[in-house]
Amino acid sequence: MISASPGATKLDAVLFDCWGTLVQAPNLMRRGASAELFHRSLTTNGCEVDWEVFRDAYAVESMKQHEETMRDLRELDYVGRLEATLQAVGIVPNEGHALAERAWSEYLAEWPRQSTLYVGTSALLSSIRGTRKLGLVTNFPDGPTARAVFRKFGFESVFDSLVVSDEVGFRKPHRLMFERALGELGSEPESAVMVGDTFEADIKGAKDIGMRAILIDADGSQAANHGLADAVVKGIDDVKEALRRLLKQSTMFFR
Asked: Rounded CA gap, 210 and 205, in Å?
């Protein structure tokens, strides 16, 4: 067993982001994918709206909602965004609400179907499970859909805490997301480390409440923020070694 250095805090919990960290859904996560799927649903359900007109109106409403959300980090309302978009392109409110609800439902149904684990995710979680508490903290705008993905991968039997932004009402980096997970784990911020692929949400959010954090930056696009993370890796395969290095000052060891 590795001896702890003087004054070191034992790390007893490892928290992970979900999509982009442990789970991938590239066709859904690429830029513009949601607008394309929404438009496809509208067309399929008899609403003839020109793609470019819809795309531009949706972009405007998305920016408005993003700016509003950044003020208090409340969860996004995609149905409301879609309704506003449809109203902007001339669809009457009553019809727009039904179309928006249908498009949102069809879009959500794709997430359990298209989400897959990164190669290396299962091995990494298995190496930690049983040695430290495991938490998952994800921004996702629909709790039931997120839970369906968790069931697909058996996450309920792997993680000791599963926190979804839609169920909390706020998105990372809001401290409530991390505090909810730490409370369920029975851990303190200084005793936990967060692993995620988005600096603002995962790293800054965790560091702001006193956690340590590992940034996954596959393409180096977040290089300006590398110095603010406790460790930076290129992918899931590198996380275990980064955890080893961080945890040398504690009594933790991997099997």
From this structure: 9
